[in-house]
Design a protein that fits this description.
Length: 421
């Protein structure tokens, strides 16, 4: 890729592209351990039982056992999320998870620094993650930090503090890497009957927008780990806006939001999108072709839960569901008409998101005005799933299933094993 709003460079064939995603995009803060898939734990002696369990001696995918346990951590501006998973015939099976709102980036736009209170909240959450990874015997992992740590002047210092206090080695990744991981994480939800898809991730401090040329998907695309990770090769253009729900709400207000406040937020985002759209003119392509949105963020899952009138959030009903642009706007308009207390009372919002949800709606509304797609698919998955997908694909887990030797049946004949691959 040529830059935050550039046309995608010709992609190498996967799996080399997965390595390129981690080591050739100019990310800051990445360590050698992160690039080679060594242990994400700092300061654990390799000869100790903990060191052996956490894979410090593990230096290559070829020797990695089939029972490997993978960890993926996404430390964002607003949330700290962890997934621990094992490979399976259909991709992977999650065996542990953790999510907590930590608001690491609170106030960073005005001060330029991560606050002491935010860092303490985050380290408390990361201690829980470290304990889960140790107890589950994670052997290969990738732990990433995004916008808050990218822009804070004390971001690298905080990463060092995390290593000292929790034993976790985080890497601050660039926006291109974040965009690619979002694509890999939700690619199985793409509608292959469309020509174009906008994958977007509305975060706390930034929003990643990726246009995919689905015509590049071959007929043999099977949603295997390898194929899902390889969807990165379909990226036509991408951009990362330095605008997220936390930063937008801090600038325009989040508790008491009038219709004019909301329109001001929408206009703010649309101005930020002008250069990218002027360069690539995707609005013209959307009018002439079949296209859909694929959203992977708390904004779209919240809107979906409210639209479905869920008494409590249900991932099984939200992940993969389809909304129309009219559905999205109906929910947004209802939320604008509510007081802060009424938004808090919504079962799919709660007090931790009530002051941020309208900022997310405004970002989504800006996307719909610039690119008038009528169909949006909701993904309750994203960066963590993208990390797991790429790591397991690099290690060839789905290929091992595909090429497993035939097993001899008791009756004397051979029956091939049809694993997904």
């Amino acid at each position: 890729m040529t830059g935050p709003s550039g046309i995608a460079r010709p992609a190498a064939s996967f799996p080399r592209d997965a390595s390129a995603m981690r080591s050739e995009t100019g990310d800051s803060g990445g360590s050698a351990a992160a690039r080679t898939g060594a242990s994400a734990f700092a300061g654990v002696p390799a000869e100790s039982p903990a060191g052996a369990a956490e894979g410090i001696k593990d230096t290559g995918a070829s020797s990695r056992p089939a029972h490997s346990v993978y960890g993926a951590l996404d430390l964002g501006t607003n949330n700290c999320r962890l997934l621990v998973a094992k490979p399976s015939r259909r991709g992977f099976v999650v065996i542990d998870a953790f999510s907590r709102i930590i608001r690491l980036g609170e106030g960073v736009l005005t001060s330029g620094k991560l606050s002491d209170a935010a860092m303490k909240r985050t380290i408390d959450a990361l201690r829980v993650c470290a304990d889960k990874m140790r107890r589950r015997g994670v052997t290969r992992s990738r732990l990433i930090a995004t916008e808050a740590c990218r822009i804070a002047i004390n971001g690298p210092e905080f990463i060092d503090r995390v290593a000292n206090e929790t034993g976790l080695k985080l890497e601050i990744v660039g926006r291109e890497t974040e965009a690619k991981l979002a694509v890999s994480g939700c690619s199985s939800l793409l509608d292959r009957n469309c020509d174009w898809a906008l994958v977007f991730d509305i975060g706390g401090g930034s929003s990643e927008l990726i246009w995919l040329d689905l015509k590049q998907l071959g007929r043999s695309w099977r949603r295997s780990l390898h194929d899902r990770a390889g969807v990165q090769n379909c990226i036509a253009a991408w951009t990362s806006l330095p605008i997220g729900v936390v930063s937008l709400a801090e600038r325009h207000g989040g508790r008491e939001v009038t219709q004019s406040d909301y329109e001001a937020m929408v206009d703010h985002v649309m101005v930020a999108l002008k250069g990218f759209e002027a360069q690539h003119r995707f609005s013209e392509r959307v009018e002439q072709s079949r296209a859909h949105f694929l959203g992977t963020s708390g904004t779209v899952t919240t809107i979906s839960g409210i639209h479905l009138k869920l008494p409590h959030y249900e991932r099984a009903r939200v992940d993969g569901c389809w909304l129309t642009a009219e559905d999205v706007r109906r929910v947004s308009n209802d939320l604008i008409a509510m007081s802060y207390a009424e938004r808090v009372a919504q079962p799919c919002i709660g007090h931790e998101r009530a002051d941020l949800v309208l900022a997310g709606c405004a970002i989504l509304e800006a996307l719909l005005r610039v690119w008038p797609c009528q169909r949006l698919r909701v993904a309750d998955r994203g960066l963590r799933e993208g990390i797991l997908t790429t790591l397991m694909a690099e290690d060839g887990h789905d290929r091992r299933e595909q090429y497993r030797p035939h097993r001899r049946r008791r009756g004397g004949g051979d029956k091939p094993h049809h694993g997904r691959g």
